[in-house]
Amino acid sequence: MSVTIYIPGDSGSLSLGAEKVAKAVEKEIAARGIDARIVRNGSRGLYWLEPMVEVVTDAGRVAYGPVAAKDVASLFDAGFVTGGEHRLSLGDPEKLPFVAKQTRLTFARCGITDPISLEDYEAHGGLVGLRNAVAMAPADIVKQVTESGLRGRGGAGFPTGIKWKTVLDTPGEQKYIVCNADEGDSATFADRMIMEGDPFVLIEGMAIAGLATHATKGYVYIRSEYPHAIAVMEKAVQVARRAGILGKSVLGSSQGFDIEIRSGAGAYVCGEETSLLNSLEGKRGVVRAKPPLPAIQGLFGKPTVINNVISLASVPIVMDKGAQYYKDFGMGRSRGTIPIQIAGNVKHGGLFEVAFGLTLGEIVDEIGGGTATGRPVKAVQVGGPLGAYFPRALFDTPFDYEEFAKRDGLIGHAGITVFDDSADMLKQARFAMEFCAIESCGKCTPCRIGSTRGVETLDKLKQNIEPEKQLALVTDLCNTMKFGSLCALGGFTPYPVMSAINHFPEDFRPAAVAQAAE
Ligand SMILES: Cc1cc2nc3c(=O)[nH]c(=O)nc-3n(C[C@H](O)[C@H](O)[C@H](O)COP(=O)(O)O)c2cc1C
Ligand code: SF4
């Protein structure tokens, strides 16, 4: 009987040597005359164990990892094709604590199925949501998405159903669905992981959005630094077209919907929705003033839904299991699940999908296992480069949009970066200003000029030139940027800067005073 061996083919695992492992496994199979089939799956998101190889045995799937090419011959010697014991044995992957503690709704198939096999997708519950949507009126689809409580996972947390309703209610011959796959936030990889590991769930979500709003054309805007995601999405779109999911008629319905994959040249600001639309139109990626909202005048001036990958990929489960099912997960106004991406100086880095509500401390200490260096955690930046730094004193903050906002922070795209006690928060604050200066689109003064002045001021502080004056100046500058910027790049840069100053004042003390205290 043929054996199935899963070896991840996603970019994270490839960067850790998965291709060499696959070649070595192929070689051993041929040399030993074993009847086996290799499936290049996505990652389950336990990156410290990648490349994690799995074998289907009579007792279910058995995992081994992290596997290097040099381990492969010994794995075969140990009889791993039938689940034999080896020093890299991990047992049933579903029972690994990092997996067992998750609630995987959006990522239910990621790492389990063959990403570009539609049969596998359907065998694991795919297309049920789209089939349900085909049988519904657009307004009812919008209602179900609204009632699920799903909010945009790109950063702003805007209710997805309300955005869709605006597009549905706006008359227009042509409407568009744009998927924001720019994923520029530091420490984030959820969009990439799902596009590489389960691309059909995004295609299904986009098709449902099309049916819900009468949009017939969709674009996925993927950063050019994601060549593997682009390739997988291209392939999956072709498969979906051949299967009648995309094209002139969505699954035999009276409405058509098709998708084009576009790659962006890699500017952080091109993740901002209006800048992204300009870039898609072939213009410079400069932010547009709002109003008009993209939902009313978006791509090429037409009504446009623009949603993050995870927002769209979460729609099929809502349309499959119902609004209430999804809404039952979570806390407060943060409903459903959130794929938290744990990165930085952390022992167990990876993607952890869970209902909203876990505290930051649980995520960092229990799920992430503390720092990789073994030193104490000093700070955690939540929400990418525009997110605040949280000290241990705020580790009781539950993962929830409003709870984070109350503490002058944000969830953003749910990426967290862990820092140990060797981190210099003045350096991090300067980095935030420098990042803003480099990535600013230049349209408004507080961001374009303010960020450069911010770098200079923090440099003077570092050099101990009138430190108190510099601190007052930075605070004032942050206020101007926060309230005077056109978009969140300039408007949110004060979050990392001010949180570093407020929570870690010792790193901003004039050097002379600090030395005297030591
Ligand atoms: C500077 C900047 C960068 C952004 N980058 C991204 C990004 O990479 N991906 C994303 O989905 N949203 C990003 N956003 C948020 C988008 O503007 C927009 O809110 C989002 O695409 C809406 O989708 P959602 O409602 O599904 O979250 C960014 C915003 C700003 C201000
Ligand atoms: S805040 Fe910065 S990125 Fe945003 S519009 Fe102004 S200059 Fe451009």
UniProtKB/TrEMBL annotation:
PROSITE patterns: COMPLEX1_51K_1 (PS00644), COMPLEX1_51K_2 (PS00645). InterPro entries: NADH-UbQ_OxRdtase_51kDa_CS, Nuo51_FMN-bd, Nuo51_FMN-bd_sf, Nuop51_4Fe4S-bd, Nuop51_4Fe4S-bd_sf, Thioredoxin-like_sf. It comes from the Bacteria. Keywords: 4Fe-4S, Iron, Iron-sulfur, Metal-binding. The keyword Metal-binding applies. CDD domains: TRX_Fd_FDH_beta. SUPFAM superfamilies: Nqo1 FMN-binding domain-like, Nqo1 middle domain-like, Nqo1C-terminal domain-like, Thioredoxin-like. Pfam families: Complex1_51K, NADH_4Fe-4S. GO terms for molecular function: 4 iron, 4 sulfur cluster binding; FMN binding; metal ion binding; NADH dehydrogenase (ubiquinone) activity. Residues 426-471 form the NADH-ubiquinone oxidoreductase 51kDa subunit iron-sulphur binding domain. Its cofactor is FMN; [4Fe-4S] cluster. Belongs to the complex I 51 kDa subunit family. NDH-1 shuttles electrons from NADH, via FMN and iron-sulfur (Fe-S) centers, to quinones in the respiratory chain. The immediate electron acceptor for the enzyme in this species is believed to be ubiquinone. Couples the redox reaction to proton translocation (for every two electrons transferred, four hydrogen ions are translocated across the cytoplasmic membrane), and thus conserves the redox energy in a proton gradient. This is NADH-quinone oxidoreductase subunit NuoF. It comes from Aminobacter anthyllidis.
